[in-house]
Design brief:
single chain; mainly alpha; Arc Repressor Mutant, subunit A; Tetracycline Repressor, domain 2; 2 domains; elongated
Length: 233
């Protein structure tokens, strides 16, 4: 449940919270350190998402190193102290921004990809779904690409669950393909990473109009990925 630290109230906020304290939906935690309300949940989540959206745009335009709490607060039109209600520090904002956008990609893939058939068929379906996401949502794709190319990603201490956000289905299908001899004997993550990087780069180049999808169609790019992943006869 979202909370608000009582030490960061303005006078106006403090009076508001004291008044609401006596209403049914307003509560104090067991140690009397925080005030919170059930009706505040949606508003708090909206503000948190707004901070993530602002950070996303900042990373795309200025790079990961360009993110500072001062600039995020200014562009989000909130006080810098309020950022700490939602995030521990700058590193946490950067990490949560990455995870939120990765979750967006994962949700899209889940909605547009269902495993069926062979590992090769599943890799093809995954690649097509990923390409379509890149065309529909180029900003989120650009952010993920920035992280993938940055040493910052290695310092974020992601859990295995965070690494595999909604990509576990395709990973399992690739693992099956390696086990049954359909794909090369290598870590399935290498195949997934190769395919992800190739398709996302292709989608970005098509968006930027530096690659013509007519003369260099998606099918040809997918064939190249499949050739690299398929076990030689």
């Amino acid at each position: 449940m979202p909370v608000i630290n009582s030490t960061r109230f303005t006078i106006k906020e403090f009076l508001f919270f004291v008044k609401r304290l006596f209403e049914k939906d307003f509560k104090v935690d067991s140690e009397f350190k925080f005030f919170y309300s059930d009706v505040m949940r949606e508003k708090d989540e909206n503000r948190r998402q707004h901070i993530l959206d602002v950070t996303t745009k900042m990373i795309i335009t200025e790079g990961i190193s360009g993110v500072t709490l001062t600039k995020v607060a200014k562009q989000a039109n909130i006080s810098q102290s309020n950022i700490y209600i939602y995030f521990k520090d700058k590193d946490d904002i950067v990490k949560q921004t990455f995870l939120s956008r990765k979750q967006t990609i994962g949700d899209y893939i889940m909605d547009h990809y269902s495993p069926k058939g062979s590992a090769i068929e599943n890799l093809t379906l995954f690649a097509r779904a990923l390409y379509q996401f890149g065309m529909d949502d180029p900003d989120d794709l650009a952010l993920i690409q920035q992280f993938n190319a940055s040493p910052v990603l290695a310092t974020m201490n992601l859990s295995q669950e965070e690494v595999e956000i909604n990509f576990d289905k395709i990973f399992k299908e690739l693992a099956k393909g390696v086990k049954n001899g359909e794909l090369r004997e290598m870590n399935p993550d290498v195949i997934l990473t190769m395919g992800f990087a190739t398709i996302t780069t292709y989608a970005q180049r098509v968006q930027a109009k530096t690659i013509d999808p007519v003369t260099t169609p998606l099918s040809a790019v997918i064939d190249m990925i499949i050739t690299a992943a398929r076990k030689p006869v």
